[in-house]
Design brief:
Elements lengths: L12 E4 L7 H7 L5 E4 L2 H5 L3 H7 L9 E3 L8 H13 L4 E6 L1 H16 L9 E2 L9 E5 L11 E6 L4 E6 L7 E4 L9 H20 L5 H23 L4 H21 L3 H13 L3 H25 L2 H5 L1 H6 L5 H20 L5 H4 L7 H9 L13 H12 L1
Parallel strand pairs: 1-9, 2-3, 2-4, 4-6, 5-8, 6-9
Antiparallel strand pairs: 7-8
Helix pairs in contact: 4-5, 6-7, 6-8, 6-10, 7-8, 9-10, 9-15, 10-13, 10-16, 15-16
Length: 395
């Protein structure tokens, strides 16, 4: 896919490896930060994941001044204000986010308040409304799925108004993403499977949707190769640090890819399903991925077929005639979902979730039509076409 014009941007430093956490105090001090605050959630703390981080600071001049561990699964404006207050009370000068998507979004939003002052977060919502760079923010992901550690987006719930408030700015991008396999060794099988398919979908849509470019392609195919080679291994040997590190890198690579080339129909439907039925984002991605590829295939089937190489490897790719590669890609993804269902109970159809009513499909389709991601899908979709995809995904 030749591009006459594109932009690619990722200023986030990646610090990755089996002792990556030990480098954090030095990297913070290089930015002039000496008094970081940790933002996390109760589950991360209970799993003992703060211990290696705190140990890394044991002999450093940099000291952890405060720990905010009260981030809920769906973060809110109140949570962000509470975190910002603790930061100010302890005279902190940097944030270390340790957790999944909600913790990272909370940290990005709290960084707005502690840098720019005040408690009025909503006035900075929308796209590119931050006036200048924010205080240092390091992100230590504890799942391998969202890619939020390298994106410029945060979403926080306004519980009073019952809406989600989005923030988009290059200044929201963290200074560093710290990928240490110790942080994902305790992930249960279901979460491993779900977050793995979240990253897989980011990479597949980054490659097959309209804003793909040569640089995002390199990150997307690299991510797909790593996920395909390691996701099932992580279920077989969950404590293998090498496998966990591969998945962590894949998630970050997929995040870099999709934040530069956007996503499409899977995300439009997934966002809408999540809003209507309150299902986790990664599960929503898994539910729609093969059906969206089937829908798009008559427009970009050749492009989809190219993914057989990173998905299935060179032998399968070489043995498959060009005209059959698209089918093989979709079948490969279906087979992977079947194995994730058998080994980790990850639902493949809307019916299997037990949380979706058939009567809700109309509402999901109506929301998906207005979702921003649908703009970048290679094939347009009206409400009837979305309903047909949802019926296929029903199972």
């Amino acid at each position: 896919m030749s591009k006459s014009y594109y932009e690619f941007f990722c200023p986030v430093k990646t610090i990755a490896g089996h002792q990556a956490l030990e480098h954090v105090p030095y990297e913070l001090s290089a930015l002039g930060a000496k008094r970081p605050m940790i933002i996390t959630d109760a589950g991360v703390r209970k799993a003992g994941l703060l211990a290696p981080v705190e140990q890394a600071f044991a002999d450093a001049e940099t000291e952890i001044r405060a720990v905010f561990d009260d981030v809920p699964p769906d973060s809110s404006l109140e949570t962000v204000r509470a975190a910002a207050a603790l930061y100010r009370d302890n005279d902190c000068d940097a944030i270390i986010a340790i957790g999944g998507g909600s913790v990272i979004d909370t940290s990005k939003a709290a960084n707005i308040l502690v840098t720019l002052g005040g408690d009025e977060l909503v006035k900075y919502s929308g796209a590119h409304n931050l006036p200048h760079a924010l205080n240092p923010l390091f992100v230590v992901p504890t799942t391998s799925g969202t890619g939020s550690e390298v994106t410029m987006v945060a979403v926080v719930s306004d519980t009073e108004r019952g809406v989600k408030v989005p923030f988009t700015s290059y200044f929201l991008m963290p200074n560093a993403a710290v990928l240490d396999p110790r942080m994902t060794l305790t992930l249960p099988p279901h979460i491993t499977a779900m977050t793995g398919m979240d990253a897989m979908t980011h990479a597949v849509e980054a490659y097959t949707c309209m804003a793909a470019n040569p640089l995002s392609d390199a990150y997307a195919t690299g991510a797909i190769r790593k996920i395909s080679a390691n996701l099932l291994k992580a279920l077989e040997t969950p404590k293998d640090p090498a496998v966990r590190l591969e998945l962590a890198q894949a998630s970050t690579m997929a995040g870099i890819a999709f934040s530069n080339s956007m996503v499409g129909l899977v995300h439009a439907l997934g966002h809408s399903l999540g809003a209507v039925c309150h299902l986790p984002h990664g599960l929503c991605m898994n539910l729609f991925l093969p059906y969206a590829l089937e829908y798009n295939r008559d427009v970009n089937g050749e492009r989809i077929g190219e993914l057989l190489l990173p998905l299935a490897g060179p032998e399968v790719y070489a043995a498959t005639p060009a005209g059959q590669r698209t089918d093989k890609v979709i079948r490969h993804i279906r087979d992977l979902r079947d194995q994730l269902y058998e080994r980790a109970g990850l639902a493949r159809t809307l019916r299997e979730t037990g949380k979706v009513q058939r009567s809700q499909l109309e509402d999901i389709a109506a929301l998906a039509i207005d979702d921003g991601s649908i703009i970048f899908n290679p094939k347009e979709a009206d409400r009837d076409q979305l309903m047909a995809i949802l019926e296929r995904a029903w199972g």
